[in-house]
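Example 3.
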Amino acid sequence: DAGVIQSPRHEVTEMGQEVTLRCKPISGHDYLFWYRQTMMRGLELLIYFNNNVPIDDSGMPEDRFSAKMPNASFSTLKIQPSEPRDSAVYFCASRKDYTDTQYFGPGTRLTVL
Amino acid sequence: SQQGEEDPQALSIQEGENATMNCSYKTSINNLQWYRQNSGRGLVHLILIRSNEREKHSGRLRVTLDTSKKSSSLLITASRAADTASYFCATDSGGGKLIFGQGTELSVKP
């Protein structure tokens, strides 16, 4: 298996622009997670899905952030409008079931100017 | 909110020495996991220990769990320069949600 795939790997945008991050989980995994990592706040869980349904979005910072999972093999995290404080590395991870280990993608490094 | 807290925040040792990292958490857990992150890369799963286990081994890794103290430790024996990375503990309190600590930055000098 190719592992968790994220795109783009790097994104540089200007404040106010819409940003869309993409993730393809490992085939057969029922759970998908979006994390954000910064030096100041560490690794934060933003939202996670089970069988394409959002279960917990309490970590989503504000209404500018939204996530969707239209099918089992694709998820997006959208920021609109983006702000400089959104600059971070965003990781997607997937898991087969709730007792299993979690596999992380390589991350998307987002820079908002 | 952070569940796990690693200690120390940074650790520097010589190749061949053992490295011990500790993790404390606040609520009851189903399992605790340790991950490694090399600079600029994603996290890689190392080992999972369930709440009813006290010790687990995987190669040069040894993990202990003390649920009464709500703490875990990761021991890397005979460290190598390639072990240089950040190490995170993550707790699973149910429902599939993992909460990560701030990590320990390990530097192994050749």
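The CA atoms of residues 39 and 85 of chain B lie 7 Å apart. The interface with chain A takes residues 2, 30-31, 33, 35, 41-45, 48, 88, 90, 92, 94-103 of chain B (CB under 8 Å).
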